[in-house]
Design a protein that fits this description.
Distance between the termini: 99 Å
Number of domains: 2
CATH topology of the largest domain: Aspartate Aminotransferase, domain 2
Number of strands: 12
Largest sheet: 7 strands, mixed
Order of helices and strands: HHEHHEHEHEHEHEHEEHHHEHEEEH
Helix content: 40-55%
Number of helices: 14
Strand content: 5-15%
CATH class of the largest domain: Alpha Beta
Structural class: alpha/beta
């Protein structure tokens, strides 16, 4: 009898143990399922990450090509100043040290270059870095940002990431900004107006008259970002407005060393604004931007006037050759004040076809779908040799491309 009771007791314990174990497993499973996963801001779901021009190394791996001409990212084909390279070499032994967080030397050079107090200058990792500071400091959920629908995609991403609402204004038929409509689109919710001048990816400019009309009509509480990344290519044109000539406390001017100065890899840019705005931006600026090599290279680049002058002259020569070539091919290039030319392809399918045909021959150009310009292609100005490669490659497929344009 005792043996039977002992056996029943063991069975009961065994069943109870498995029941508890099963319940515990179900509990853990339910607990795990009830835990919410980390979630990002809902407004980020519609953002498509920035897509840069295809890297030379990537194309070389994919196609096994030895001759590649990258005409996709509006870089200076002459490269940086020799003085910048020497400054980089001298500072390679200091890579274990953090750079000057305040960028004293570079601010001093910029102050002398622009004849402005250093208190009006903020440095950043490229002009996009300064755009990010502006968005952090001045934009929030529901704020309205006005710009053109055919402008710099990098700014679109930064503005959307802040939760702001982008109001994109269609351009004129000439692909220039419709400044009149931009002015009429201002509402009490408008916090910021972004203008790339010259504009990327069209190469067009806002004239002095258009800019001055905007300044007259824009309320002083609305920030105006003047993105002048391509300033050096346009500054000699009499109708081009240098925003630094206008003393308005709501203007933020952006410049970069990535284009005419040939320092794209080092990511050095800066903003010029009122001391009050600069002080505010400094509160959200990460420490130690830009990096050490970028700062010393930029200082020397500013001093090498001959290098900049040479680059501008050679760019103009190759620009005129490219523009004439496209016109002779019965295409419709947009007159540009930059180091690139954008032309009409009629359809996005034609853009894709042309991009791939030239890619197969080692020429990298830029499709513009992300900029709401699916039926356009952009070609950066390269060296004479790189441009010759483009012409030779285009000639091989131009007849077929022109048939597609007519179809």
């Amino acid at each position: 009898m005792a043996s039977q009771n002992k056996s029943n007791f063991i069975k009961l314990c065994y069943k109870t143990f498995h029941k508890i174990r099963k319940n515990n497993q179900d509990f853990k499973k339910g607990l795990f399922m009830s835990i919410k996963k980390p979630s990002s801001h809902s407004h980020l779901e519609e953002i498509v990450p920035y897509q840069a021009g295809k890297p030379i190394e990537e194309l070389a791996r994919e196609k096994g090509l030895k001759t590649i001409s990258k005409l996709a990212s509006n870089e200076n084909p002459l490269g940086p100043s020799k003085k910048s390279i020497e400054a980089i070499e001298k500072n390679l032994c200091n890579l274990n040290r953090y750079p000057d967080m305040n960028g004293y030397d570079l601010k001093k050079e910029l102050s002398n270059h622009h004849k402005i107090p250093s208190e009006k200058i903020i440095l950043g990792s490229g002009s996009e870095g300064v755009m990010t500071y502006i968005a952090k400091a001045f934009l929030g959920a529901g704020d309205e940002v006005i710009t053109s629908s055919n402008s710099f995609i990098g700014f679109y991403i930064i503005a959307k990431a802040s939760g702001a609402n982008l109001k994109l204004i269609a351009p004129k038929k000439s692909n220039q900004f419709d400044m009149e409509t931009i002015e009429k689109s201002i509402t009490p919710k408008t916090k910021l107006i972004y203008l790339a001048n010259p504009n990327n990816p069209t190469g067009t400019i806002i004239t002095k008259h258009e800019f001055e009309m905007l300044l007259k009509k824009c309320p002083p509480n609305i920030l105006i970002i003047m993105d002048e990344a391509y300033f050096e290519y346009a500054e000699d044109y009499k109708e081009y407005p240098n925003s630094l000539d206008y003393d308005y406390p709501n203007i933020i001017t952006l410049r970069t060393f990535s284009k005419a100065y040939g320092l794209a890899s080092l990511r050095v840019g800066y903003g010029i604004a009122s001391p009050e705005i600069v002080t505010t931006l400094a509160k959200v600026k990460p420490p130690f931007e830009p990096n050490l090599l970028g700062q010393v290279a930029a200082c020397e680049a500013l001093k090498d006037h001959e290098h900049i002058k040479k680059g501008i002259i050679e760019n103009k020569t190759e620009y005129e050759r490219l523009f004439k070539y496209l016109v002779d091919k019965k295409l419709s290039p947009i007159p540009s004040f930059t180091n690139f030319v954008t032309f009409y392809t009629k359809t996005g399918e034609n853009s894709d076809w042309l991009f791939n045909q030239l890619l197969n021959q080692g020429v990298i150009i830029r499709k513009l779908g992300a900029n709401n310009m699916h039926d356009f292609i952009r070609v950066s100005i390269g060296t004479k040799e790189e441009m010759d490669h483009f012409y030779e490659s285009f000639d091989k497929i131009s007849d077929e491309f022109l048939k597609k344009m007519k179809g």
